[in-house]
Amino acid sequence: MSAVETQTQMGGTNPHANIIKFTMLLGGVVFLLMMVFGLLMRAAQGGLIDLDPSLFYLLLTAHGAGMVGSAALSGAAILWYFCARHLDLRGSIYLAFLGLFLLGVVLILGGIFIGQYGGAWTFLFPLPASSGGAWGAGAAVSFLLGYLLIGVGFLLFYLEIGLKVSARYRGLLGGLGWRYLFGGASDDLPPPTIVAASSVLVFNTIGIVFGAAVIAATIVNLLFPSFAVDPLLAKNATYFFGHVFINASIYMAVVAVYELLPDYTGRPWKTSKLFVGAWAAVVIFVQAVYFHHLLQDVNMPAWTLALGQIISYASGVPLIGVTVFSLLLYVKGSGLKWDLPISLLVLGTVGWGIGSIPAIIDGMLAVNKLMHNTQWVPGHFHIYLLLGEVAMAFGFAAWLVKDRSQAEMSGLDILVFRAYTLGGVGFVLMFLWSGASSIPRRWAVHYEEWQLQSQLASLFALVVVLATAGMVIRYTLSLMRRS
Hints:
With 483 residues, this protein is an all-alpha fold. The protein has a single domain (3-40, 54-361), classed as Cytochrome C Oxidase, Chain A (Up-down Bundle), CATH 1.20.210. It has helices at residues 3-9, 17-45, 53-83, 91-114, 137-168, 172-176, 178-181, 192-223, 231-253, 255-265, 273-288, 302-331, 340-362, 365-371, 376-400, 411-436, 451-482. It is globular, with a radius of gyration of 22 Å. Mean pLDDT is 91; it is low at 1-12.
């Protein structure tokens, strides 16, 4: 056992606690702002407010990039914090990562709100260069350079974790637990957090490299239009990167459950062969499943479309069959006392599992033809984020500033938790109802027949925004008291 493990397991302070607390504050404020953007867009679609379509698409771009970015940032903060319980990580590397991330955010926001870039967070080629006069090449370059800097920051982040895992567990295979999976000794078995961290750094590093390649090619095309880029190849690389990156954000955050639930239940989350095998499957599935984003591309080889559908079915097994099921077993009969942190962490894990179900449905070819370009799709990934990763992030943040003498939720905590949960459930159900009614996604203006769902969604979104504001204020006041 390392000195770092000994110190943290005996109750020592985490050397990275202060910068992680700041990161979570930053992430919480951005989450809240992006939710306000989402509320404005749904209210506009419901005819409740007038919003210029050009402004709608700027907000849509900022909302997508901001929510994905905040999810990735908070997930990374959670992963770093708990990896520091087992590894001697350098704080300077995290500061460099955070600096690159924030610089990238400045370039992204400049491209959107100064340069008027409104091509959505997916930057799908050749849209950045084909705006119809809505924005110039400079705005698109600024937006994409911001992404590139964030990607470099994450590569630096994963490099540090990878080096320390390799040194501590005799190579990355040791950190993944794959030696143990194939008959190796269990005398130096990594804890669940290290297995998760090693798995995420493998598939997200690959995803970021593909994303950086297509971003760099798109920037060159913007500066030198004669530089040719194959649109189908670019689309594959873009969706491979996007799918892997947003999923990695959730997989990073779930380590908070592995580390904190045992404190509440008294039951350690053990590294078993089933656990290691599930994470090994995740490494493969999270990369291969991106084909389900391309089921409507007739130019794709048939085998890729079949693979996208099959892996869509299989990808829910490690999540629902291992993490969610194990969580319920750990909680059942444990007698844990529910407070705000553990309630949000359990909500996030269960919400993440439930969110995979509409994703699997959309991965069916027959369904995909009808519903992929409808609001069904934002419905499923809002479940992933709103009731999944974001709930985990706020649960971890609440734990960071938890009053250890308070064993149960206060009346205000109960109100905030119930408002967030019920508001979130109602909000995502409106997306799924809209998708089942064939209402298209990404439309700034809705026909009157489509507006009821948007109006109800706006009401639920307002509840979520108020609950989130309550959690951000609670966290900020707790930080101020402690400082």
